[in-house]
Sequence to fold (329 residues):
Amino acid sequence: MQRFSKENLLKVFTYPLKALCSKDFYFQVLLRMRGTGFLYLLLISFLFAFPACWRSMGVLQFFKSLELPSLVAQLPAAYLDSNGILSPDNESEGYKLILSSKGYPAVVFNTEGKILEGQAVDAPVEFLADHVKVHTEKGDAVIEYKGLFETGSEFKPVQAAQAVDEVLGASARTVWSVIVMWFFILLAGNALLSACIGRFLILFVFRIKLTFVATLRLCAYANTVVALLVLAQFFIYLPVSYTVMLILPLLYVGVFSRAFRKELEISGLEAFKKKYTGIQEYKNPQNTDPEEHDDTVSQNNVASKPQSEVTDDKRNKNDGDGGSGFFQA
Fold:
């Protein structure tokens, strides 16, 4: 088993790229990297939080320059329904242009979705029916209300302004810590759910016997693509549903499972062991002391189950022989 340490730190930092692009990397994850799944999720949460924090602090500074809290206090009172749609309490206030203290157009409340004209075109912040859009020199940033406020609740401008003021006063360390926690909770939850589905996918579709913990480890690394998409949302408008986030790791696990079974059927169990576990020769323990043989197996993390017990296939009963489990997580 490989664990994160100073000696392999540089190697560890290549794992996200390998998890995205290398099918062979998942053989190492399964056979040689036991106990690293949630550590890996924590690692990419730490790493991906840095650019996300940099982007977030830039947005916060931009909002500070707009005197956003005072502007939010001037928004019409509204209601955010369960679908994340914002509608004003007074229907006549579905469109409103708010100017800054210097007289510049700053915020447009436009839940009616009107085409902007005149001064409203220059307003950097626009509140639409289901999201707020921020226009900057680097491009537009879109934030859905569901990610900011509790759905099925009233939008009270004064209370919202106080909350915005507190958020804008947060330090970079605080923002980074919150983003790390958010990344980790999102990825860990998605890995657990995809592992529950993935185990049945591997067993019944690809007919490979795999423990839940081993499946969870595969799904943890397969969630790298989800982390990348979530990070991209900090920079561009990229709506990604939870269904998509759940399916993507399963696609990686499915591609790996297909490659695993194909490799095992083509190479045979003995050649497979030599290639992926580093054992140059596997001897039948009939003429070997059982205790000595068990120690050798344990030290090298090698399976000694027959291929039929690994793939749930009864065609290859002559390969290998009994012993410790192939995928003990």
